[in-house]
Amino acid sequence: MRIIRYDDGGTVRWGVLDPDGTARAADGDPFTEGLRPGAAVEGEVRLRAPVTPSKIVCVGRNYADHAAEFGNPVPKEPLIFLKPSSSIAGPGDEIVYPSLSGRLDPEAELVVVIGRRGRRVPAEDAMSIVYGYTIGNDVTARDLQKSDPQWTRGKGFDTFCPLGPWVDTDFDPTDVRVTCAVSGELRQDGRTRDFLFDIPALIAYVSAFSTLEPGDVIMTGTPPGVRPVKPGDTITVAVEGLGELTNPVVTEAP
Ligand code: ZN
Predict the structure, then answer these.
(1) Are residues 30 and 116 in the same domain?
(2) pLDDT for the residue 20
(3) CA of 107 to the centre of ligand 1 (A)
(4) What is the pLDDT of residues 184-212, one digit of tens each?
(5) How much is the pLDDT for 73?
(6) Ligand 1 mean position to 199 CA, how many Å?
(7) What is the whole-number distance in angstroms between the Cα of residue 19 and the centre of ligand 1?
(8) Number of compact structural domains in the chain
(9) Ligand 1 ion: Cβ-proximal residues, 5 Å cutoff
(10) What pLDDT is recorded for position 134?
(11) Cα dist. 173→116, 133, 165, 170, 214 in Å?
(12) 64 and 43 in one domain?
């Protein structure tokens, strides 16, 4: 099933997407009682980010060839950081190029959506707390990431975390292509089979120090080919079999 959140006259509601693309309103909650699909949504459907996580957990350097392209060693343990929930943007939303930065990079990522609370979850049980998968763009002010001792600012500006367009609950993430195209030019290109740490290992590692809550997301790292963007560019992150997430880059208003 494909789960969406959409704008219903200023209120954001849950919905589902039928296989033919029809959006339906849905009552209930996906993580507790489940969703009960109802009538088709009338008119144009404006999708929002499909989750409202209490935390956005990110993994750095989870593809060996991406670590190498920035001259970083391959990590022996997952390299974990957080993005703030205020950085979330929806499908089609603008990514604002901050005036404080001189280098903005998109990062194409497969995103795991947690469905059940998990603390100290062993890797062999980890998939039982996964609800589904979506697409993410871990937008990064690379110059600030490098100059600041912590990555919070470089990774945390408003609009630096586009998510969507939906959560797919029947998706197999084991070996799928992850790409990023900028204004039509393919740049990043990798496959999830090349993860250094697979999804069960990431869930075990993260839940050993922080309780994962329903709706939380884990962004699984980005494949090689990262290069900067500029205002006016359009970024499309695609995960094979899951869909595409497209966002324009705009200059920050003074
Ligand atoms: Zn990333």
Answers:
(1) no
(2) 93
(3) 5
(4) 999 999 999 999 999 999 999 999 999 99
(5) 81
(6) 15
(7) 30
(8) 2
(9) 107, 138, 222
(10) 98
(11) 19, 8, 16, 10, 19
(12) no
Q: Judge whether 242 and 135 are in contact, CB under 8 Å.
A: yes
Residues of the chain with pLDDT under 50: none
Convert the pLDDT of each residue in 139-178 to its tens digit.
Answer: 999 999 999 999 999 999 999 999 999 999 999 999 999 9
Find the radius of gyration of the CA atoms of the chain: 17
Pairing type for strands 243-251 and 95-97 reads parallel
pLDDT at 17: 96
HEC letters along the chain:
CEEEEEEECCEEEEEEECCCCCEEEEEEECCCCEEEEEEECCCCCCEECCCCCCCEEEEECCEHHHHHHCCCCCCCCCEEEEECHHHEECCCCCEEECCCCCCEECCEEEEEEECCCECCCCHHHHHHHEEEEEEEECCEEHHHHHHCCCCHHHHHCCCCEEEEEEEECCCCCCCCEEEEEECCEEEEEEEHHHECCCHHHHHHHHHCCCCECCCCEEECCCCCCCCCECCCCEEEEEECCCEEEEEEEEECCC
Tokens of 233: 């560019």
Cα(58) to ligand 1 centroid in Å equals: 6
pLDDT at residue 64, as a whole number: 82
Tell how far the Cα of 41 is from the centroid of ligand 1, in angstroms: 34
Q: In CATH, what number is assigned to the domain containing residue 85? A: 3.90.850.10
Kindly give the distance from the C-alpha atom of residue 140 to the centroid of ligand 1, in angstroms, as a whole number: 8
Judgement on whether residues 9 and 69 belong to the same structural domain of the protein: no
Residues in the chain: 254
Distance between Cα 66 and ligand 1 center (Å): 10
Which range marks the domain in which residue 16 is found?
2-48
